[in-house]
Amino acid sequence: MKPTIDQTKFGSITIEGVVFEHDVIVRLDGSVTKRKKKLSKAIYGTSHIISLEEAIHVYQAGAKRLIIGTGQSGMVKLSDEAADYFQRQKCPVELLPTPQAIRVWNEAKGAIIGLFHVTC
Questions:
Q1: What pTM did the predictor assign?
Q2: Fold of 5-116
Q3: Fewest C-beta atoms under 10 Å: which of 39, 48, 71, 109?
Q4: What is the pLDDT of residues 37-67, one digit of tens each?
């Protein structure tokens, strides 16, 4: 079951009443895990560009959509390799500033994954 995201502010996101003070991934089964941004930072020197390695970690077979909260001011982007990977998986990606992304997430239906950056 897809959890409801209550709110976000700089440095945190609240999901079903639980405050997370780090970036998160919401899985197909509704579980919330910490984003492994080191996978991207090791390649690009920043977690604001999602690497192919991180894309592979985020994707789950059966996902029909990925919503990415790009941060409070929209700093996160996909690398070309990550974008190509999601396209090959036939998993459309929506990149929106995190406050907008949580509204889209809460209205979304179906097999979706979310990745939410809580700063920048």
A1: 0.97
A2: Hypothetical Protein Mth938; Chain: A, (3.40.1230)
A3: 109
A4: 999 999 999 999 999 999 999 999 999 999 9
